[in-house]
Design a protein that fits this description.
- The protein is an all-alpha fold.
- The protein has helices spanning 2-30, 33-40, 44-51, 54-78, 83-100, 104-113, 117-123, 126-141, 151-169, 171-178, 185-201.
- It folds into two domains: 1-52, Arc Repressor Mutant, subunit A (Orthogonal Bundle); 59-206, Tetracycline Repressor, domain 2 (Orthogonal Bundle).
- It is built from eleven helices and no strands.
- The protein is globular and about 55 Å long.
Amino acid sequence: MKRNRKNSENTEARILEAAVKVFAEKGLKGSRINDIAKVARVTPSLINYHFGGKENLYKNVIEDFYVGVERRLIPIIRAEIAPQEKLKQLIGFGIEILAEKDHMARILLRESIDKGKYVNKVLSKPYLRDMFGMMDQFVFSNMERKRDDQNDTIHLISNIFGLMTIFFVAASTVKEFWQKDVFSKEMIEERKEEVIDFVFNGIGHRFKLA
């Protein structure tokens, strides 16, 4: 029984990995179960058996990403360290996970263009909303108040997310024009330094740095 469960988990993981690549390249509408099955080296019927169709597989891809984010993000948010150091760690973590899940940046960008239909469904789940609530509270509680609402928080998080994401979305352009691999260890570490510097010395002037 344990062996069968392990085999099933391995199959699902392989399907998810293949689906991320295909969805990133072709989007939800342009992808076919047959395409994903070919990359995953499984039959289309096996994908339907495990995930119940293309749309549900797509939602599973997004949820699997955010579950992984939550697992590693929460300990950073809960750590008893200075807010400045915590923000630096959060930025570093965001860049690392986008580098590890290199196709997810494009999927998330497509989702934003499509008004986040599937991301919003996933994030409606209580445990993921709690994660974003903790993140929001952390940033808002350490902002220099300039408004009576949380608009500053929205702008800061959006700016940071954009700085982290577009770097990986533009990977092919960087490779073609500058002959640089944005997924190399050197470039990832440089990107962390660049974003942290920009946040703390630019858009982060609203953050309590003292």
